[in-house]
Design brief:
heterodimer; A: alpha/beta; Rossmann fold; 8-stranded mixed β-sheet; 13 helices; about 40% helix; B: Rossmann fold; 2 domains; 7-stranded mixed β-sheet; 6-stranded mixed β-sheet; 14 helices; globular; binds thiamine diphosphate; binds iron/sulfur cluster; binds magnesium ion
C-alpha cells in the first residue's frame, strides 16, 4: 500500500492517498466477513458493497442495519451470514443506535482499558430510504455531534425491501411501484448535505470500483469522528436489468458522469481516480447508454432524457467551479 | 472542581432539599449509569440539565452523555448502548415518550434493562405540561415495567431499586419510573442521598466486560440480533417470555423493596403496593402517583371524623399486582379507583379501574368498584375533593346506590361545571 502525504499551506487539512493495487488487494483483501449463503439476489449491489467494506474494516467493527433489504438478506433467524457483531434496527434508528454503540464503547474503554473498546468501530449500514428519508434527522444529528462512527448509505435508489417504492434518492424519470409513470422529482444529493455538516470525511463509492471503495473504507477507519460513505449499489430486480450486468451498469453510471466518485476530507474535495477523466465532458458517454439498459427508465420521454442529461452536466459544472474556488482558498 | 463538587464526587449520606427532577438526576449518579442520552421536554428538563452539570463537570467519570436531536434517537441510542453492555438512563415526558414509541418496543423486545424516568404530563392537544399519567399508561403493552412515585424521596429510591429489578437475570426488562409533572418534578422537599459505598453494595455490579448474558457486542463472540423470524420460528415464544419475565418480576420487586428497607430504612410496602389504614375499613380507595400523598391525609382526617376509610397506594402498573388488589378488595365493601389518566371508550373506567375490575372479575369477591377520574392535565385536586371522593364511597356503601352523575360508569371528579 502506498501512502502519499500532500502537504499544503493549511495545516489542518491533509489528503491521505491510500491506493491499493489489484495485486495488493489479492493478497490483503481475501478475508470474507459477509459470508456465502446470504440470501441476496444474484447480482446484488448491496452485497458487494458490504463485502468490500468489511474487507477493509475487518475485526472490531460492530454494525447497525436499519430496516432494509440488508435486514432480510443476512438470513432468517437463526441463520446468519455476517461473522461480526450485527444488530438489526428500527428504520429511522440507524445513526442513533450506532451512536449508542460508540458511547458504550467509550464507557467500556474507561472501565476496561485493556479491552478492545477503544479500537471498536461503530458503523451504520443503511439503505437510501433509511438514509435520505426516514433516517435523515438521526443522521444529521449524529453528524452535527461528530459522533465517532462510520455511516454508510448503500444506494439502490428505491425502497427495495418493501417492493421498489420511490425514495428521495430515486432519480428523475425512474419508474417505481409508487411512481408508475416515472418520478417527477430529482434525486436528493445526500453526500452534499453531509458535506454541509462539516464532518471529517465524506466519500462516494460505487460497487464497480471495489479498490476505490476498499481504499476509502481503509481511510475512513483511521479517521476519528463522523464519516459518511455513500455507495451506488445497483439492484437487478429494482432497476430492471439482468443480474450479470450489475458491474456494467454501475460502471456506466460513472462513465456517463451521472454518478461521481469523490471524497471530502476535512472540507477538501477531490475527485477520485475513476471519475477524474469524466471532468472533461468530451469523455463522458451519453446518458442514454446508461438509461436504456434499465427497465425502470423504459418510458422516459425525450424531454425527461434531456432534463436528466442537463442535470448531469450541471452537476459537473457545479463541481468544477467548486474545485476552482477551493483552489483559491486553500 | 469546587469543594462542594468534590464532596459530591464521592457521595456521603446527605439530606438535601431537592426538586423531584434533581432527585432523579442524583439517583442516576448514585447508580453510576454509564450512558445517558436525553432530549429536553417540559417538565423533565431539569433532570437533563442537572445531569449535564454532573457529567460535564467531571462528577461522573467515564459516563457518556449523548445530547441527541430527538426522542426517537434518545431511545435508539440508549438501546444501542444497552445492547453493548452498559447501564443506561434517560428521562422524558408525554410527547417525548410518544415520539420514542417505536424504540420503546425495541428496548423491551431486546430485553434491555433500561431505566427511564417520566415527569408525566398530559397529552396534546391542547398543549399541556402538567401532571397526568396518560403517558406512562399509554406504554402499557410495550413490555416495560412501570412504577409510580408519590414523594421526592421515592423518586430517588425507586430509581435505585429499578436497576436492581431490571438487571436481575430473571427479569431483564426495561422500566419506567413515573412521577407527576410539576407537582413532584418542580417542587422541593428534603431527599436523602445515600452514601456511594452503600448504594454500590445495594446495586448489582455494573455489567462486566462481556456485557449481558443474552445480548452483547463482542468482536470475539460475534452475535446477530433481531433478524427476521418466520412465524414457525420462536417469535411467539419470545413474546411469551416477556410476559413470563414480567410476572416473575413481582417476586423480585418485593425482594428488592425488602432489601432496600433493610439497607436504607425506608419502606415502600411490599414494593408493589402500600396499604394505608385498610384494616377495619368499610371502603377503600386505590390511587397512585402524587395524588396518593394527599389522599393519605384525607384518609387520616376522615378517620378522625369516624369514617372507616382506607387506601391502597399502587406502586406498580406493570407488572400489575393483582394478588394485592384482591387482598385489599376483600377487606372492604366498596373500592374506589382514582385514575389521573384516561382510557377513552373503556367500559370499565380509567386505565387502573379497568385493571382492578378485571382482577376482581370471577374472583368471587363481591366488592363494588367505582371508577373515578381526577386531576387530568394537572387540574388541582384539593384535600377537600379527595375527602369528598372517600365520602362518596362511604355513601355508596351505606345506600348501596351508585352516584348519579356517572359518565359511562365513571365519576369525573373535580370537573368544571359547564353551562
Ligand atoms: C417505521 C417504519 N416504516 C416503514 C417500514 C417499512 N420498510 C421497511 S424497509 C423499507 C424500505 C427500505 O428502503 P431502503 O432504506 O432504501 O433499503 P432497501 O430495502 O432499498 O435496501 C420500508 C419502507 C419500517 N420497517 N419501519
Ligand atoms: S432486491 Fe435489490 S438490493 Fe435487495 S437483495 Fe435483491 S438485488 Fe439486493
Ligand atoms: Mg433502497
Amino acid at each position: 500500500m502506498i501512502y502519499f502525504m500532500v502537504l499544503s499551506g493549511m495545516e489542518n487539512w491533509r489528503l491521505n492517498k491510500i491506493m491499493t493495487s489489484l495485486k495488493e488487494a489479492m493478497n490483503e483483501a481475501c478475508d470474507e466477513h459477509f459470508l456465502p449463503g446470504n440470501s441476496c439476489c444474484a447480482g446484488c449491489g448491496l452485497e458487494l458493497a458490504l463485502r468490500w467494506a468489511m474487507k477493509a474494516l475487518g475485526d472490531n467493527t460492530a454494525l447497525v442495519a436499519p430496516a432494509s433489504c440488508l435486514n432480510v438478506v443476512v438470513g432468517l433467524w437463526p441463520k446468519t451470514a455476517p461473522d461480526f457483531p450485527f444488530v438489526n434496527m428500527a428504520f429511522a434508528a440507524g445513526a442513533a443506535a450506532a451512536t449508542g454503540f460508540d458511547a458504550a464503547f467509550k464507557a467500556k474503554a474507561h472501565r476496561f482499558p485493556q479491552g478492545p473498546w477503544k479500537d471498536m468501530t461503530a458503523m451504520t449500514f443503511a439503505g437510501d430510504g433509511g438514509t435520505t428519508d426516514i433516517g435523515i434527522q438521526g443522521l444529521s444529528g449524529a453528524a452535527e455531534r461528530n459522533t465517532d462512527m462510520i455511516y454508510v448509505c448503500y444506494d439502490n435508489e428505491a425502497y427495495m425491501n418493501t417492493g421498489i417504492q420511490r425514495s428521495s434518492s430515486t432519480p428523475h424519470g425512474a419508474k417505481t411501484t409508487t411512481t408508475p409513470f416515472g418520478k417527477q422529482q430529482y434525486k436528493k444529493d445526500l453526500p452534499r448535505i453531509m458535506e454541509a455538516h462539516d464532518i471529517p470525511y465524506v466519500a462516494t463509492c460505487s460497487i464497480s470500483e471495489p479498490l476505490d471503495l476498499y481504499d476509502k473504507f481503509k481511510k475512513a477507519k483511521e479517521i476519528k469522528g463522523c464519516r459518511y460513505i455513500h455507495i451506488l449499489a445497483p439492484c437487478p430486480p429494482g432497476w430492471g436489468y439482468s443480474s450479470e450486468n450489475s458491474i456494467e451498469i454501475a460502471r456506466l453510471a460513472i462513465k456517463t458522469g451521472s454518478w461521481i466518485l469523490y471524497e471530502v476530507e476535512n472540507g477538501v474535495k477531490t475527485i477520485s481516480k475513476p471519475s477524474k477523466r469524466y471532468m472533461d465532458p468530451e469523455k463522458r458517454i451519453p446518458l442514454t447508454d446508461y438509461i436504456s439498459k434499465q427497465k425502470r427508465f423504459s418510458s422516459v420521454s425525450e424531454k425527461t432524457l434531456i432534463e436528466l442529461q442537463n442535470q448531469v452536466d450541471k452537476n459537473w459544472k457545479k463541481l468544477a467551479s467548486e474545485l476552482k474556488c477551493q483552489e483559491e482558498y486553500l | 472542581m469546587t469543594e462542594a463538587e468534590q464532596r459530591d464526587f464521592i457521595q456521603k449520606k446527605e439530606s438535601k432539599i431537592l426538586k423531584g427532577n434533581i432527585a432523579a438526576a442524583y439517583a442516576a449518579k448514585s447508580a453510576r449509569v454509564q450512558v445517558i442520552s436525553a432530549y429536553p421536554i417540559t417538565p423533565q428538563t431539569t433532570v437533563v440539565e442537572k445531569l449535564s452539570e454532573f457529567v460535564d463537570g467531571g462528577l461522573m467519570p467515564g459516563t457518556q452523555y449523548i445530547k441527541v436531536e430527538s426522542e426517537h434517537s434518545v431511545m435508539a441510542s440508549i438501546v444501542g448502548a444497552s445492547i453493548a453492555g452498559t447501564r443506561t438512563f434517560t428521562a422524558t415526558s408525554g410527547q417525548g415518550l410518544f415520539y420514542m414509541n417505536e424504540m420503546i418496543h425495541w428496548a423491551a423486545g431486546a430485553r434491555l434493562p433500561i431505566v427511564t424516568t417520566l415527569a408525566s404530563r398530559g397529552p396534546a392537544p391542547p398543549w399541556n405540561i402538567w401532571a397526568d399519567y396518560f403517558d406512562v399508561i399509554n406504554a402499557r403493552d410495550t413490555g416495560w415495567m412501570s412504577a409510580f412515585c408519590s414523594t421526592h424521596q421515592e423518586i430517588y429510591d425507586e430509581i435505585l431499586m429499578s436497576y436492581k429489578v431490571t438487571e436481575n437475570p430473571d427479569v431483564m426488562l426495561p422500566k419506567f419510573v413515573a412521577y407527576g409533572g410539576f407537582v413532584l418534578s418542580h417542587t422541593s422537599k428534603p431527599v436523602m442521598i445515600e452514601e456511594q459505598d452503600l448504594v454500590d453494595k445495594f446495586l448489582p455490579p455494573l455489567p462486566d466486560e462481556e456485557g449481558w448474558e443474552h445480548i452483547f457486542i463482542d468482536p470475539e463472540r460475534p452475535m446477530m440480533h433481531g433478524n427476521l423470524i418466520m412465524p414457525s420460528g420462536f417469535y411467539m415464544e419470545f413474546r411469551m417470555k416477556i410476559h413470563d419475565a414480567m410476572v416473575r418480576a413481582k417476586e423480585k420487586i418485593k425482594k428488592v423493596a425488602e432489601e432496600f428497607e433493610r439497607m436504607f430504612g425506608r419502606s415502600y410496602g411490599n414494593g408493589l403496593v402500600q396499604e394505608y389504614k385498610l384494616d377495619g375499613a368499610d371502603v377503600g380507595i386505590v390511587i397512585y402517583g402524587d395524588l396518593a400523598l394527599q389522599m393519605e391525609q384525607a384518609v387520616d382526617e376522615l378517620r378522625d371524623e369516624g369514617y372507616k376509610v382506607g387506601m391502597l397506594k399502587l406502586r406498580y402498573f406493570r407488572p400489575f399486582p393483582e394478588e394485592d388488589i384482591r387482598k385489599a378488595a376483600k377487606k372492604v365493601k366498596v373500592l374506589g379507583v382514582v385514575d389521573r389518566a384516561t382510557a377513552f371508550g373503556s367500559p370499565t373506567g380509567g386505565p387502573v379501574s379497568s385493571e382492578v375490575k378485571s382482577t376482581l372479575h370471577n374472583s368471587g369477591i363481591e366488592t363494588k368498584v367505582l371508577p373515578m377520574i381526577s386531576g387530568l392535565g394537572g387540574r388541582e385536586v384539593t384535600l377537600e375533593q379527595q375527602k369528598d371522593q372517600l365520602k362518596i364511597l362511604v355513601k355508596m356503601n351505606e345506600t348501596g346506590e351508585l352516584p348519579d352523575d356517572l359518565l359511562y360508569g365513571t365519576l369525573w371528579h373535580g370537573k368544571l361545571e359547564v353551562e
